[in-house]
Amino acid sequence: MKEAIGYLRVSTREQGRSGLGLAAQRHEIEDFGAKQGFFVKSWHQDIQTGAGKDALLMRPGLATALKEARAARLPLMVSKLDRLSRNVHFITGLMEHKVHFMIAALGRDCDTFTLHIYASLAEQERKMISERTKAGLARSKKQLGMGFRAKRSRAFRSRLRTRINAGRRKAAMERAEAYRVHIEWALNNRDRWGNPVSFRGAAIKLNQQQLASPMGGSWTSRTVRNMAFRLGFSNRIAYLPTNILQGRAHAVYKLHPEMTVKQLIAMLSLKYSVGIVRAAAAARRCRESDANSSWAQRRINWPLDRFTSLRIRISEAWKQHPGFSGRQVIAKLELENSVRLKWVQRILNDCWKASGRYSREQRRMGRRSLAARRSPRRSARNP
Q1: What is the dihedral of CA 273, 277, 283, 285, to 10 degrees?
Q2: Can you tell me the mean pLDDT for 64-69?
Q3: Confidence tier at 228 by pLDDT (50, 70, 90)
Q4: What is 2-123's CATH topology?
Q5: In the chain, where the domains are located
Q6: What is the value of pTM for the model shown?
């Protein structure tokens, strides 16, 4: 098959966000190329009006497409003539660039005379569209009183916000419908372990197809997820909702508070594996809920890690028995084979410093030195 350069254009930013025009043009060009034996090597697009004779300065996508087509001596393919421009002078200038462009709606072999006629019709249609749009906007502003603040009552503003939100939801649904085929294809793939593909994997598949997102950029996991839920593809997604994941993580945390993130993923026993980022966030929320109820954690601000629960247990033991040594705390909590003595002593010293019941000189001396000085007095009082 022969190669060609594809060009897409919509007039307004809203049309670019919806993706309806871009997706439809791409589909028409691909069908036309398949029938004529052409394969689109690269795609270029613009979100710009078709008016103006110097539109090349305003359309970097078209300028790049013409430069690439001229350098490689490849034809430029568009769905309709008005996607290039609605200006006769601009169409004539493109013909002078010595770049062969093919119009999918007009066929492969279309002579210059026919192109001039269709360009004149497109320019006249642009003028009529502009006149109708201006007249309709003026009539709507007069009927709704948009030019007078006194006519904008609270009920009117409420109705206006409701219509705006409904329009946004409708536009989002239209964007999703425009990409229904692509989203469904991406979610039907499998990962390397044979499980249903994740949102990130589906986004990677779409980016590999060089398909632009509704905003004109690359696909992300959030974009795929939002469109999948709008289109009702939740039954095909290996995705555990956050509230359910958090509930299961709390249940595991109560039984194994010293778990790591990888251990949490293994203990969840889910049908599909949970990503390490989501599992780490769930584990951190569990530790935060446990740390908020600890006075020592609030004062000392220990790091939230797999030892958070153990630090809190040691601080509670110190609160009940301030005179305990590190070995006594280890024996009381039954931690003989899980922690080191120096680490427990460091936690006890942190609790002693954070208690705020001692003078500056006593804090300078340290907890163990203070206990050693007090022991002779206690023995003298209690012989």
Answers
A1: -130
A2: 86
A3: confident
A4: Rossmann fold (3.40.50)
A5: 2-123, 176-236, 240-292, 304-383
A6: 0.40
